[in-house]
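Handout, section 4.2: multi-component inputs.
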Amino acid sequence: MIRNSENWLLKVENLTKIYGEPGPNTLSKTGPLFNSNICPDTGSIVACADINFDLYPGEVLGIVGESGSGKSTLVKLLYFDLEKTEGKAWLKPFKEGEENFLEVSNQKKRFIKNHLLGMVYQNPRDGLNFNFTSGGNIAEKLIMADEFHVGRIREKASSLLNKTEVPVLRMDDLPSSFSGGMQQRVQISKAIANNPPLLFLDEVTTGLDVSVQAKVLDLIRELQQDMGISMIVVSHDLSVIRMLTDRTLVMKDGRIVESGLTDQILQDPQHPYSQLLVSSLL
Amino acid sequence: MNILEIKGLSKVFELHILGGKKIEALSRIDLSIPKGEILGLTGKSGSGKSSLMKCIYRTYLASSGEIIYQGSDNRIDLVKASDHEIIALRKKKITYCSQFLSVIPRISALEVVCENLFKNGMDKDLARKKARDLLETFGLPKELWDAFPVTFSGGEQQRINVARSIINRPELLLIDEPTASLDLKTKDKVIELIRELRDRGTTVICISHDEYTLEKLVDRRIELKDGEIIQNPINHTLNNLSIHE
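Output:
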C-alpha cells in the first residue's frame, strides 16, 4: 500500500465538513475563487473541504488563515469534536495506519482520543473541567488512558505541573482560582498527560499577555524537543507560526490555498491571499 | 567535485497585491561551487545576492532552472525537492545564517546555540558543553550565557547567530554578512572559525560588503548586478577559479 510506504504519522485525504444540506454544486461554487464558503444554491456552509496533507513524526505543522477560514474545524474533525462530512485520515500508531480512524466505532474513537491524541483549546474552559482541581483534571486524562494507581497519578500530575511551571502546591486548587496563563499551562499539562504522539494546539496564545505568551511558546517548543511530539498549531498570529513550525498551510474560505516551508510562506508567499496575509503582518 | 551546480536559475516575484506586477530578482544564473570552497557574493543592495542564497535554501521558490546539490550521501535538485526533503537537509546538511538573530523570546543564549544539536538528538549536557566552548572562543562574556539574547547588543547577537549556525558543522553554510557589526578582533575570530570549519569539509557561501572580510575569508568572489553575475574587473581570487565553467 502506498499509504504505508512513507514515513508519515498522520495522513489526511479530502477532509470535508459541510453544515446544512449540500447541493450538487456546493463545492464547485464555494471557496477562495468565490470569496465565500456559503453555497449560493442551498445556503449550506462549507467549513472546510478538500483538505489533504501529511504530518511527519516530530514535525510541527502550522495552519494560518483569517477567522472562519476553517482552521479550527480541521483540528476539531481530527479530534472527533466534530463529525466529518467526507474524507479519510490515518494515524500510524493506530492499526499501523491501515484503518481510516474517522470511521471507526465510538469505542475505538475514545481509545484514540485517550491514548494517541492531545488537544489544547484557545479557551481553557473547553479543555478543563472547572469543577475539578488542576490535579484532578490531569488525573481525569490519566484515568482515561488506563492509569488507576492513585499514587502514580499524583506523582505524574505533580511532575507535569512542575514541567509547565504551575506551582505544585496549587495542585488541589480549582482552575477558576488561576490566572489565564496558568489555566492554559494546566490545560497543556492535561493534554500531554497521556504522552500522545500527536498534539493539537488551537490558538493557545491568543488573549494572553506577552510575557505569559512567551512562557507558553517556550513550553511548547520544549515539549517538542524533549518528547518529540508532532503538533498541529492553529494560529492567526504569524509570529507564533514563525517561531514554532516547520511547515505551514494557509487556509481561506475552507480550502488550503497554499502549503510550504514556513519561511517560504512568510517570505515568498505565492497565493494572492497568502501575500495579503503576510503583508498585513505588523 | 561540485557541491552545487546552478543552471539557468531565475526568480521572478509576482506581486498580486500590486495587480500582478512582476519583479525579476535573478536572471538565468549559472554557477558551480566546488566542495570546500568559500565563495563570496558581492554586489549592491538589490543586486540579487540574498535572493540567490534564499533560492538555494528554498526560502524562495525558484521560477525556473535547477540547483543540484551533491551531498555526501545524496544528489538532489533543491528547486524540485519536497518540503520534507528540504527539512531533512536543513536539519543536518545545509544551514542558513541570516543577518539578524531571530529566536523565540526567553530562551537563553546558550540554549539558542544548542538548538541545532538538540534537534539532531545530541545528549543535552554534551551539546551545552560544545556551546559553552564555542561561546568562549567567540569571547562572549560568561554572564550573558544564561541571559536572553533579545536584549543583547548587535555584535553579541551576531556572534550567537554565527555560533548557532556553525556548531553542527553543516556540509553547506549560507551566511549573510557574518561580520557586519563586529570589531576587528572579533571579526578575525569569526573569519578564523569559518575557515577552520571549511578545513573540516564545509563549503561556505558568504554575502559581504566588507572588503576586509572578503580579502581574508573568501577563496573566490562573484559580483551580482541586476540579478546577473558579472565578471569582476579585478581578479581577487586566491586560486584563480573562473566564474563560469
